[in-house]
Amino acid sequence: MTTVxxxxxxxxxxxxxxxxxxxRLSPRIVGSYAVLLFLTVLYLGPLLMLVNTSFMxxxxxxxxxxxxxxxxxxxxxxxxxxxxxxxxxxANSIFxxxxxxxxxxxxxxxxxxxxxxxxxxxxxxxxxxxVIALFLPPxxxxxxxxxxxxxxxxxxxxxxxxxxxxxxxxxxx
Length: 173
What we know:
Elements: E1 2-6, E2 12-16, H1 27-54, H2 58-63, H3 75-83, H4 86-117, H5 123-135, H6 140-149, H7 156-164, H8 168-172
Antiparallel strand pairs: 1-2
Helix pairs in contact: 4-7
C-alpha cells in the first residue's frame, strides 16, 4: 500500500510499504533451539513428574507412576503439612525475616545518614571500608566460632545477628 503525505514545506513524500522480511531457518538456529528444548525437558521433566505424582494416591503411584492422576488428590499435601509441622516453619521464617529486616534497616539508616551527610569525620573512609567489605568473602568459620563462643549457637538471636551484619544496606542508603 502506498501513502502520499505532504510536509510543512509542501513537499510530497511517497511512502511505499516494504514487503515483510522473510525469516530464514538456518541449521545453526534450528540446532540452538533443539539444544534449548532438550535442556528445558531435562530440567523441567523431574519437576513436572513431581507435580504429577503429588496429586496421586499411593495406589495410583504404585500402579503406574508416569500416568496422569485419575483425580486431583490433595490428601498428600494435608498429610505433609501435618507431619512435617510446616506451620511452625512458616512462623519461624516470618519471625526471622521481619526481625532481621527491622533491625537491619534501623541500623543501616542510623549509620548511613551521618556518613552520607558528612557529619562524621572520615566518613569517606568508613564508606570505603564498607565497600571493601562487600568484596571480601564471608568468613564462615570465624563467624561460626564467634557465635559459638558467645553462646548464641542455635538461638534466634545468633541467627538474626548473622543476618544483620551485612554492609549492603549502608551503601545503598
